[in-house]
């Protein structure tokens, strides 16, 4: 792949002092916060990526990105975390047994501790995507984090729901891939593997079912996530430069997270991966039973062409509305899929203003 945009570039955010803040988790992983500071602000924003994207989805140089949009709209102190699901770290391309409980228990409480060291007791608003949104919501509803002024979740939160085809992939697919094909993770770059190796053959087989474009990494993304051609986004919402580098934006993903998502889909809400494992005793068995006690208002973004987590956020909003009427908000995003609300060429017109409006109403 010939790159016109550098991988992991920070050049998409202009007129801000950029600093990096490494920190560690209780279970021994090194993570990172990146700060984009234009002006001291009473309201700080923390951006949380999904699996296996990275802070990159918020700072891409080829379109008007969310971090820049926030800086331009009065939120002068924006932070983006890279946690264990990040494509900027090797963790998810290695053989591992991490699940979303590890993220909720270790990554986000440590993120907030590091953030608070720098911003003190100023209001912190969180904008989270995909499994980052699921696991951050778990930290919040478990009471491991309680100092968040608002939480915006794109695509999904505490009630993951997926298309029927995804259910099949989540159950049979993970087993087949790991035990029969012998691959512990799926990589959108499998199409670049040497001919006739197992990764290459898998990519070729997947592309047989995708005639919507000629980018094998895009086909593999659809195989990794959801049910559709393509599954992750509407092609028409992306710039050609973004589509050409989808493997840089969302990289290899480990299979164990899929196993945990399957358990949640079966249960209809976030549940523990291993309910009897003492390591996770600080997490609840039911995240929604005390939903009325969670004072942080949520903005649930629900793209209406979501072929990864379908109507998850619409469903959750109904549940939360019963628990705490009027506290949380739902925003249906017409014409958008799972990821394009963040990486779309017109997101700064169609999506970001809705988020800024919510944040401003929960600011000073
Ligand atoms: Zn494509």
UniProtKB/TrEMBL annotation:
GO terms for molecular function: hydrolase activity; oxidoreductase activity. InterPro entries: AB_hydrolase_1, AB_hydrolase_fold, Cholesterol_Oxidase. It holds the Pfam family Abhydrolase_6. Gene3D superfamilies: alpha/beta hydrolase (3.40.50.1820). Keywords: FAD, Flavoprotein, Hydrolase, Oxidoreductase. Residues 45-340 form the AB hydrolase-1 domain. Its cofactor is FAD. PANTHER family: CHOLESTEROL OXIDASE, FAD-DEPENDENT OXIDOREDUCTASE 2 FAD BINDING DOMAIN-CONTAINING PROTEIN. Belongs to the GMC oxidoreductase family. This is Alpha/beta fold hydrolase.
């Amino acid at each position: 792949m010939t790159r016109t945009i550098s991988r992991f570039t920070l050049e998409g955010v202009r007129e801000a002092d950029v600093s990096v803040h490494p920190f560690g988790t209780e279970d021994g992983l090194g993570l990172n916060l990146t700060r984009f500071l234009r002006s001291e602000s009473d309201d700080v924003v923390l951006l949380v990526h999904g699996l296996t994207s990275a802070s990159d989805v918020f700072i891409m140089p080829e379109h008007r990105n969310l971090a820049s949009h926030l800086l331009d709209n009065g939120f002068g102190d924006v932070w983006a975390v890279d946690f264990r699901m990040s494509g900027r770290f090797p963790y998810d391309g290695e053989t591992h047994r991490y699940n979303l409980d590890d993220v909720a228990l270790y990554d986000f409480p440590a993120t907030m501790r590091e953030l608070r060291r720098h911003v003190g007791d100023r209001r912190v608003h969180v904008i989270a995507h995909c499994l980052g949104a699921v696991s951050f919501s778990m930290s919040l509803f478990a009471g491991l984090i309680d100092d968040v002024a608002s939480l915006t979740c794109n695509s999904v939160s505490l009630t993951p729901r997926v298309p029927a085809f995804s259910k099949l992939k989540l159950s049979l697919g993970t087993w087949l891939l790991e035990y029969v094909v012998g691959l512990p993770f799926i990589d959108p770059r499998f199409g670049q593997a040497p001919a006739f190796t197992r990764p290459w053959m898998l990519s070729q087989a997947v592309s047989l079912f995708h005639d919507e474009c000629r980018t094998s990494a895009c086909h593999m993304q659809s195989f990794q996530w959801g049910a559709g051609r393509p599954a992750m986004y509407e092609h028409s919402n992306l710039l050609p430069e973004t589509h050409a580098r989808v493997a840089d934006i969302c990289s290899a993903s480990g299979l164990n997270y899929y196993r945990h998502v399957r358990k949640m889909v079966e249960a209809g809400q976030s549940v523990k991966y291993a309910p009897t494992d003492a390591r996770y005793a600080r997490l609840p068995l039911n995240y929604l039973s005390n939903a009325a006690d969670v004072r942080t208002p949520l903005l649930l973004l629900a793209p209406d062409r979501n072929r990864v987590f379908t109507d998850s956020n619409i469903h959750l909003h109904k549940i939360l509305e019963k628990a705490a009427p009027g506290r949380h908000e739902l925003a249906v995003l017409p014409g958008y899929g799972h990821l394009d609300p963040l990486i779309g060429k017109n997101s700064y017109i169609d999506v970001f203003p809705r988020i800024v409006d919510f944040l401003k109403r929960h600011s000073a």
